[in-house]
Amino acid sequence: MIFLGLLVAAAAIGVGVGVLLDNAADAQLTFLGQAVPGVTSMWHVFLAGAVVAVVFMGGMIVTMLGVGRAVRVRRELRDLRDEHEESVTTLEMEKQHLQRELARARQQAPAPAQAHMAAPQPGGPGSKVSSSRFFDPSS
């Protein structure tokens, strides 16, 4: 969009300079050595200049809109990057806090967890119940 605006503005400047340098007569408009048809009086020349100025301003407006959009997008990306860094930092702090709490909880209650793990399971090798009680091969 910026390039398009600059291209239109440059074309308008080129046309204006070409008309300015090629005009020798008061009521005839020439561009690149050729007479522009339909231009027979001074107000036609003035109107052609006004059209060139409007095209130039249009090109500059398009350029400024493109620059404003680029600045806005860059600002939004920077804000999103900052927000992402803040959320990552917050998550890392929360992770460290939860790791400390977990370590503290493991230090306070190690005995119940070990007693639960050491208890013999029913039907296991340390139990007195035979597995044949639950399965009768004769049936």
How would you describe the overall organization of this protein?
The chain has helices spanning about 1-20, 40-110, 110-120, and strands spanning about 30, 35. The chain is mainly α. The chain has a domain at about 1-80. It has a two-stranded antiparallel ribbon with strand order 1-2. Helix 1 runs antiparallel to helix 2 (about 40-110). The model has no long low-confidence stretch (mean pLDDT about 75).
> How much β-strand is present in the residues?
under 5%
| Structural class by secondary-structure content | mainly alpha
Distance between the termini: 88 Å
Q: Could you report the average pLDDT, rounded to the nearest whole number?
A: 77
Tell the overall outline. Answer: rod-shaped
Provide a count of the helices: 3
Low-pLDDT ranges: none
Number of strands: 2
Helix content: 55-70%
Radius of gyration: 43 Å
Q: Enumerate the strands of the largest sheet in spatial order, edge to edge or round the barrel.
A: 1-2
Oligomeric state of the chains present here: single chain
Largest sheet entry: 2 strands, antiparallel
Order of helices and strands: HEEHH
